[in-house]
Design brief:
Elements lengths: L1 H16 L1 H7 L3 H13 L5 H28 L5 H18 L6 E2 L5 E2 L8 H23 L4 H17 L6 H11 L2 E9 L9 H6 L11 E4 L10 E12 L3 E19 L17 E31 L5 E22 L6 H7 L9 H22 L6
Parallel strand pairs: 3-4, 3-5
Antiparallel strand pairs: 1-2, 5-7, 6-7, 7-8
Amino acid sequence: MKKLITLLVITTLLSSCYTAQKALLKGRYDEAINLAIKKIRKGKVSDKNIKTLEDAYSKANQVDNDRIAYLKKEGRPSNYDEIYDIYTRMKVRQEKLRPLPVLYVKLPTKRKAQFDYINYDDDMLASKQKAAEYYYTKGKAELQNSDRYSARNAYTNFLETQRLYADYKDLPTLMNEALTKGQTHVLLKILNKTNSVLPPGFEKELLQMGVRDLNSKWITFDNELQSSTAYNYYILLTLKGINVLPEQLKENRYTETKQIADGYSYVYDSRGNVKKDSLGNDIKTPKFKTISCNVLETQQHKEASIGGSLDYIDVTTQQVLKTEPVAYVSNFNNFFAGAQGDINALKPETKKKLQGAFIPFPNSENMILRANADLKNLTKTIVFNNKNYLQ
């Protein structure tokens, strides 16, 4: 057992010794740096760990400096953001080394470990400022265009500027302008083609579907025409049919039965004597009887249906982008019952119906308004699920 534990310890030590070196050989220089620093902090200040740290640090900086040189030579203003990121990474990298004690390589001759420390602040500030100016200028140029998609691109560029400098120039004002110009405006409208007179307030109530819940960053819905708004899309709810069925009373007669305990009877032997159990007690068996109850159940039913379609219309082209059917059926149901016989024979749900009573039927107008409430929720769901048609 001791040999096994010793072998496991040796294996663990060997694998940890070469982890940083393996990362170095695979070109994962920052990973190698982190692993080497971790070992040194744990007291494993060996020549191998120090040299690995030196080599990884030097190569990581060389890769970054080469990339910066290329980006600067390319001369594209859009490169400054990446240049700033690289300088930031290099500064973070060298700051990891500062807390370490002075390191010495012992062999072949004792020497101080070589780590170049450079003040990157000026380069970071210069590249950061140029990157911010690039995004800011690009955003302002996009904002000069008249279309909402350019305004959204402008907003994205202003966000990049804000990431670098939260209070850059007149950035808040420009971002609000881009947000406003980038809006897609949608108007919900109703068209009645039912050849029926709708109840007072029907259309207004149908449009009160909480359109604010449908709003997103770039899409604003209105349920009333705003004269100052240039709409990009109409969502037209066309009502094509409203139908209210006659009141119905349906009767159903049925009988429910149930077996209940009805005393007991003795068990007799062949000689007519009552049988006894092992304790000398009389042997008895339970007796049952069947009880029944006649039920007259009445169902009140009335139904109203509304049907139509939702059309997504591009205001500029007058093209119908999508048509979605909408329909909803509203039901009024009431059950009540009377019983004749032993009500103990009834099921719990049947007994509950005995407590019911006839309710006056809602009038047709009320039934339509009931259907309207549910149609409103259905319409809202359909609009939400098809927002991808609104760009």
